C-alpha cells in the first residue's frame, strides 16, 4: 500500500556508488525507479536502461516515468578519465544536467543535482562555505562547476549538492573506503595523502540527507559532506583501525608525488552549517558513519549489492 507521503523518485546513475545506495535507502519510504546503462540485472527496484548521452533520452525517461523527484547521480566522475575525454565530461557533467533541470522545471519535478567539493582550489585556510568563490583545477571540476551553474540558472528551485562520500559500490572498487579495506585486507602497502583535507561522508548518511532535503523542499546550493575534516591518510588509518587491519601498511605521502595527472586541491574542508541549519539537525559524526560502513561489511552488504549485477 502506498504511504501518504510516498513519492516517485527517479535516480539516474543507479549503478554508481551513490545511485545504488541512494536507491536502496530511498526505497524504504518511496517508489524508486533507477536508470542505468544495463549493469543492474536483479536490483530490488524498477530499473530502466538508457544512455544519457543520446539526444532526447532525458525527456523520454521523464515522460514515461512521471516522477515527483529526479536525482541525477550520473556523471563522468573519474578525474583522470575526464582529462582524457573532455567532451564526454562536458556533455555528461554540464550539458545533460542543464537539460534535466529545464525538463524538470517544465514538468514541476523537483530536481537534485550532485556536484563536488573539488570545485574549490584548496587555497583557503579553514572551511569553504557556499558563498566562497570556486576555482576549478581540472576538466572534472570545471565541468562540474559549469553543470551546477547551468542547473541553477534554468531551475532555481533545484538542489545542487556538493558532496564527498564513501561506501560499498557495485564493482567493489569505487570508493576510498573500499580502496583501503581491499588493499589492507590483502596485506598490500598503499599511499595515504597527508596533504589532501576532505570531509568524507558515509554514502548512506548522504542518501538520508538528500531525501530529507527533498522532503523539506530545500532549494539552491548546499555543501553535503561529513561533519569532520581530515586528511586522506588519517581516513585510511581510521578505516584500518575500525576493520582491524594493519594501519602501518599505509604510507603517509604527498599527493604531489602520486603521479596522478589531474591536479588535486589540498583543502576540501567544506562547512555544513547551512545544511544543518536548514535541515534543523546535526550532520552525523564521522565515527557514526564509519560504524555504519563496518556494520554493512559484517552483514554482507558488499556482496549483496554486487549480486544485483549478475
Ligand atoms: N564519489 C565521491 O566521493 C564524489 C565526490 C564528489 C562528487 N561526486 C559526485 O557525486 C555523483 C555520484 O558519483 P559516484 O561516485 O556515485 O559516481 P560513479 O560511481 O562513477 O557513477 C556514475 C554513474 O553514472 C553513470 N553513467 C555514466 N555515463 C553515463 C551515460 N552516458 N548514460 C547513463 N549513465 C551514465 C554510470 O553508469 P555505468 O555504471 O554504466 O558506468 C554510473 O551509474 C557524481 O555527480 C559525482 O561527480 C562524487
What does this structure look like?
The chain is an alpha/beta fold. Helices cover 40% and strands 17% of the residues. The protein is built from eleven helices and 13 strands. Strand 1, helix 1 and strand 2 form a beta-alpha-beta unit. Helix 6 packs across helix 8. The longest helix is centred in the first third of the chain and has 22 residues. Bound molecules: NADP nicotinamide-adenine-dinucleotide phosphate. NADP nicotinamide-adenine-dinucleotide phosphate (NAP) binds next to helix 1 and strand 5.
Give the topology string: H per helix, E per strand: EHEEHEHHEHEEHEEEHEEHEHHH
Structural domain count: 1
Question: Rough shape?
Answer: globular
Please list the strands of the largest sheet in the order they lie side by side. Answer: 3-2-1-4-5-6-11
What is the annotated CATH architecture?
Answer: 3-Layer(aba) Sandwich
CATH class: Alpha Beta
Low-confidence stretches: none
Helix % is 40-55%
Percent of residues in beta strands: 15-25%
Bound molecules: NADP nicotinamide-adenine-dinucleotide phosphate
Number of strands: 13
Amino acid at each position: 500500500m502506498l504511504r501518504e507521503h510516498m513519492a516517485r523518485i527517479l535516480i539516474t546513475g543507479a549503478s554508481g556508488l551513490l545511485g545504488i545506495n541512494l536507491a536502496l535507502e530511498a526505497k524504504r519510504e518511496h517508489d524508486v525507479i533507477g536508470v542505468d546503462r544495463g549493469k543492474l540485472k536483479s536490483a530490488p527496484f524498477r530499473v530502466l536502461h538508457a544512455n544519457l548521452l543520446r539526444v532526447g533520452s532525458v525527456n523520454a525517461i521523464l515522460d514515461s516515468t512521471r516522477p515527483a523527484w529526479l536525482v541525477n547521480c550520473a556523471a563522468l566522475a573519474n578525474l583522470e578519465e575526464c582529462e582524457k575525454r573532455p567532451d564526454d565530461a562536458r556533455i555528461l557533467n554540464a550539458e545533460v544536467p542543464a537539460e534535466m533541470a529545464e525538463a524538470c522545471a517544465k514538468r514541476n519535478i523537483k530536481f537534485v543535482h550532485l556536484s563536488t567539493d573539488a570545485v574549490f582550489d584548496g587555497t583557503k585556510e579553514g572551511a569553504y562555505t557556499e558563498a566562497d568563490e570556486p576555482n576549478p583545477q581540472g576538466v572534472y571540476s570545471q565541468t562540474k562547476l559549469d553543470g551546477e551553474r547551468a542547473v541553477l540558472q534554468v531551475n532555481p528551485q533545484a538542489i545542487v549538492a556538493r558532496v564527498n562520500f564513501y561506501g560499498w559500490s557495485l564493482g567493489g572498487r569505487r570508493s576510498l573506503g573500499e580502496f583501503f579495506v581491499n588493499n589492507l585486507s590483502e596485506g598490500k602497502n598503499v599511499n595515504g595523502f597527508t596533504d589532501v583535507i576532505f570531509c568524507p561522508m558515509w554514502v548512506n548518511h548522504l542518501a538520508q540527507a538528500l531525501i530529507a532535503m527533498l522532503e523539506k523542499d530545500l532549494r539552491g546550493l548546499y555543501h553535503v559532506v561529513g561533519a569532520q575534516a581530515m586528511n586522506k591518510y588519517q581516513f585510511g588509518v581510521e578505516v584500518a583501525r575500525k576493520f582491524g587491519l594493519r594501519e602501518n601498511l599505509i604510507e603517509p605521502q604527498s599527493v604531489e608525488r602520486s603521479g596522478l595527472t589531474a591536479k588535486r586541491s589540498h583543502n576540501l574542508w567544506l562547512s555544513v552549517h547551512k545544511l544543518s541549519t536548514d535541515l534543523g539537525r546535526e550532520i552525523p559524526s564521522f565515527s557514526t558513519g564509519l560504524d555504519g560502513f563496518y556494520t554493512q561489511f559484517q552483514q554482507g552488504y558488499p556482496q549483496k549489492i554486487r549480486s544485483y549485477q549478475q
